Amino acid sequence: MLYLDNSATTKIHPEVLEAMMPYLQEEYGNPSSKFYSLAENAKKAVAIARQQVADLVGCDSDEVIFTSGATESNNMIIKGIADYYGREDQGNKNMLTSKAEHPSVIETFEFLGERGYEVTYMDVDQYARVDVEAIKKVADQNQPLLTSIMWGNNEIGSLNPIQELSQIFEENKLFFHTDATQVVGKVPINLKELKGIRFLSLSAHKMGGPKGIGAVIIRKQSKEIYTRLTPLLHGGGQENNYRSGTLAVHNIVGLGKAAERAAINLESNVQRLKELENYLTDIFKNNLKDKIKFNSDEKDKIPGLVSLQFIGVNNELLIKKLSDYTALSSGSACSSSKPSHVLNATGKSLEEVRQTIRITLSPELSKDSLEFFTRIK
Length: 377
Ligand code: PMP
Hints:
This protein is 37% helix and 13% strand. By secondary structure, it is of the alpha/beta class. Keywords: Aminotransferase, Iron, Iron-sulfur, Metal-binding, Pyridoxal phosphate, Transferase.
């Protein structure tokens, strides 16, 4: 099976699995227990993983909060900030996001919208990017409790102008969250330089780690002052009271190892992904010139993600036809009754949406394996 759906999930890397195994077997201690070695070993493993994640994104290790994945990270920040700073007795209920966010962001804002919050959903351009000046204007006017704009789009692959956004929110001191799930390990991230980003979500299974584990970075207000928010999960007070529940040590170790590998291999992976992507897009440009349209522009995009329209070809039929030997995506869970909100926000017609395919590569692929695309007529 030729797997070309690496934005949906990735294969767990053997080194990651190897690192996890002891914590599923002999090292089964609870890191919240005290004094005996099983607990201490688990605690040490969690501390190492926390540092590995911090090193990947350029923050302090006590700013890394483990969650069950990016869906939970996004929910935690959006609901947690809304609740903590937007309680009944406080006037401001404004929140800000875009029309091209992942459902775990959009639907969370919709949930809040039904509970009295005033959410502004910003338009995006044809590549699903936000307009920085428009965001600045609305933020200055509305003083939103939180603004959430994704770093890289999971369907089209466009990168948002994150540096400019960070700059705006550094200057106006309003809370800014970014969903970086699709960019970790694919673009350099240094939160010490991007001071306007107060919260960042990530997930292990998009970078060779296990499913069911992710993190949210919650930057401190200052060296000693932690940012406050209402937790999603109340209980034993783990994760600095942000997220209760016994830590999934094996998964955390897996996330840490995946983060370490992502940091070490960032440059070579990006180079390889770009090389494979150019090879693939050249095939399309040369062989199917008038039969395809690319949805993303070539610059400022996630390397290895190609979203394109096969003109006049139903995407689900094409995916099914090729499914015996390859795994492709229509770009999202795009059912015939509910087409992609992202492509819709970029101005595509329903017909164009239903002809869109997303191909997401991995650095391990060979050029030869992509050669079969030359036979598509
Ligand atoms: N945000 C983005 C941009 C994503 O692509 C995904 C995964 N499809 C998520 C959030 C959710 O991540 P998880 O599977 O870890 O909950």
